[in-house]
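Dear U.,

For the methods section draft, I wanted the exact inputs and outputs in one place so we can describe them consistently. I've listed the two proteins in the order they'll appear in the manuscript figures. Please don't edit the token lines directly; just add comments below if something needs changing.

First protein:
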Amino acid sequence: MECKVTWMGADGMSFVAQTGSGHIVAMDGAPEGGGHNLAPRPMEMVLLGTGGCTAYDVVLILKRGRQDVTGCSVQLQAERAGEDPKVFTRIKFHFVVTGKNLNPATVERAIKLSHEKYCSASIMLAKTAEITHTLEIVEG
């Protein structure tokens, strides 16, 4: 896996990242840090990548377990250390999983497997952050 991050110029703190798979992602800093608030912050990208990683796992595990899953979203709320390095210290994941006749224990197990075995991002972040999660199952 590889990527390239390029600073977009001296008048701000905007960067463009190109992934090894050919996708382009913009990042920017807060105005008080010299940015123009035109794109997500780099640490927001870390958080959203973690959400994508774990949601992917949960859907895949449920599908492989023959659960009739039709939707999955995860909202993340994170706290960071007050001083540098401002690592994540607490992250709460709130999963909303939609499907027909979903078994709550099976969905809970999928989330646990993601956090403990499969999602590299949440496993890395758990080295500095307390990870918790809540779950809401929606019939439909």
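Second protein (the one for the lower panel):
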Amino acid sequence: MTDSRPQELPAIIDIEASGFGAGSYPIEVGYYLPGGEMYCALIRPETDWTHWDAGAEKIHGVSREILLRHGQPAAEVALHLNRKFRGQTVYSDAWGADYAWLARLYDAVELVPSFRLKDLREILGDCEMASWHATRAAVELRLQLRRHRASGDARTLFETFAETRKRCRPDWNA
């Protein structure tokens, strides 16, 4: 059996949303790349994006008013992601939700993603899965990120992946 896991560090994306379930939509997209490049964009809601969950707002700390004032147009965010990740695979720890929110973003602006979104668990081995939660807790403690935001979450996931990979595969070099 061949090892389908990437031998380099993956691009990680995270999406914050207006809530969960039917009607929810992406409010922020962030990513973290090998080499340390980070991106974060608030997304201005489309006119038919009206669902809002106060519980979700308490978690991410972004109000709808902030999105309306400071959010980028959905088309700008989708085009940026397409330019950045054309032909690549990007990984998420919440594939089901993030896939649905990306679809909502791209459908709203009549575009198609130029990249593949995959579940981060697809590239984790048994050892990495077993040590994931403890490593993530240590990374969160070390980073001391104060806000639950997309780019910070993507960085936490990226660094957790790198640390678990190094611990579980000492001969691995990225």
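Candidate sentences for the figure legend, describing the second protein: The chain has one domain: 11-168. Residues 28 and 42 are 4 Å apart (CA to CA).

Thanks,
Y.
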